[in-house]
Design goal:
The protein is α+β, with helices and mostly antiparallel strands and 363 residues long. It has one domain: Nuclear Transport Factor 2, Chain: A, CATH 3.10.450.10. Helix content is 16%, strand content 33%. It is built from four helices and 13 strands. The termini are far apart. One of its GO terms (cellular component) is blood microparticle. It is found in: Secreted. Pfam families: Cystatin. InterPro entries: Cystatin_dom, Cystatin_Fetuin_A, Cystatin_sf, Kininogen_Fetuin_HRG, Prot_inh_fetuin_CS. GO terms for molecular function: cysteine-type endopeptidase inhibitor activity.
Length: 363
């Protein structure tokens, strides 16, 4: 009986030590597929896409880890690790993320990894910090799925640059409107059979008329930037080459300004599609609200041209700190030795709560 009483007292004492006594003593472990966890993750992905300057939008694929810390005087901070996948929508494409197709494995998929801190206060999510990187699937894995599929190649590859320039020249030759200039080569693949180069690139309209251009150096980008996104294939033929190109132009139109992380207002845009280009899907409401405060940043580092994709690392390489709307930055306290504060010790192993479900596929 004395032994049982001693064990009971020790259990009570352990419970007292396990329970959090102050706002920063411990953290709460949530299920990675908990609706509140997913809402915080969606806010983080929205934040990442709002800061992308190059390449393609990313979408949530899996939540790997989450801890919820109390925050003085109000709110709580979600410390999370999430995986994303590259979509086929360029960052300049106004198509809502929910309507953007995910880049498939046989297209040489790109995966992103992000560590984020998201503050939940008054029912809204404020992204405090984000650190991301991304990488394409390995060539070996792509070959397992599709032995004959083309792999990504550096965007400054000589054949890629030539294909983009030839495709743009063909597009301008067919245009009855503005003359477009090349802004960015977004991704490219060399196709073995038939021998060809596939390239996706961004263009911008100038103040010149395409049919009247005699000196390209005299053409200037429009004050109200008008961008387009093109997909092209240049195929080598006996004694020459053949170019097939399709471009979608995004026409900027004035709408109600939306609040942005840096305190400025950004106007959303709706696409104007050139003939033979597919129309974007209808808009859908955002999955989660995102409100952030002042941000201290440096000029983002321009991604190196020899890379085959736009690494998310370069998006946040210049971010020094991101603060909440109250001006209070997040400072993580030292984690206690217990796994789940306030939870009684179970006789068997606890069921895994993370990582969460895979929404598309694992890279």
């Amino acid at each position: 009986m004395k032994s049982l009483a001693l064990l009971f007292c020790l259990a009570q004492l352990w419970g007292c030590h396990s329970a959090p006594h102050g706002p920063w003593v411990g953290y709460l472990v949530l299920n990675c597929d908990d609706p509140e966890t997913e809402q915080a993750a969606l806010a983080a992905v929205d934040y990442v896409n709002r800061h992308l300057l190059w390449g393609f939008k990313h979408i949530l694929n899996q939540i790997d880890k989450v801890r919820v810390w109390p925050r003085r005087p109000f709110g709580e901070v979600f410390e999370m690790e999430i995986d994303t996948l590259e979509t086929t929508c360029h960052v300049l494409d106004p198509t809502p993320l929910a309507n953007c197709p995910v880049r498939q494995l046989h297209e040489h998929a790109v995966e992103g990894d992000c560590k984020v801190h998201v503050l939940k206060q008054d029912g809204q999510f404020h992204v405090l910090s984000a650190k991301c990187d991304s990488s394409p699937d390995s060539a070996e894995d792509v070959r397992k799925v599709c032995p004959g599929c083309a792999l990504l190649v550096p965007r400054n590859n000589t054949a890629v640059v030539h294909a983009a320039e030839a495709a743009l020249a063909a597009f301008n030759a067919q245009s009855n409107g503005s003359y477009f200039q090349l802004v960015e080569i977004s991704r490219a693949q060399l196709v073995p059979l038939p021998e060809s180069t596939y390239v996706e690139f961004v263009v911008a309209a100038t103040d010149c008329v395409a049919k009247e251009v005699t000196d390209q150096s005299q053409c200037n980008l429009l004050a109200d930037k008008q961008y387009g996104f093109c997909k092209a294939t240049l195929t080598k033929k006996l004694g020459g080459e053949e170019v097939a190109v399709t471009c979608t132009v995004f026409q900027t139109q004035p709408v109600v300004p939306q609040p942005q992380p840096d305190g400025t207002n950004q106007t959303a845009s709706s696409p104007a599609v050139v003939p033979d280009a597919p129309s974007p899907p209808p808009a859908s409401p955002p999955a989660a609200s995102l409100v952030v405060g002042p941000m201290v940043v440096k000029t983002p580092q321009k991604p190196p041209l020899h890379q085959a994709h736009y690494d998310l690392r370069h998006t946040f390489s210049g971010v020094a700190s991101v603060e909440s709307a109250s001006g209070e930055a997040f400072h993580q306290a030292k984690a206690p030795s217990v796994a789940q504060p306030g939870v009684a010790v179970a006789t068997g192993p606890a069921p895994p709560v993370c990582p969460g479900r895979i929404r598309y596929f694992k890279v």
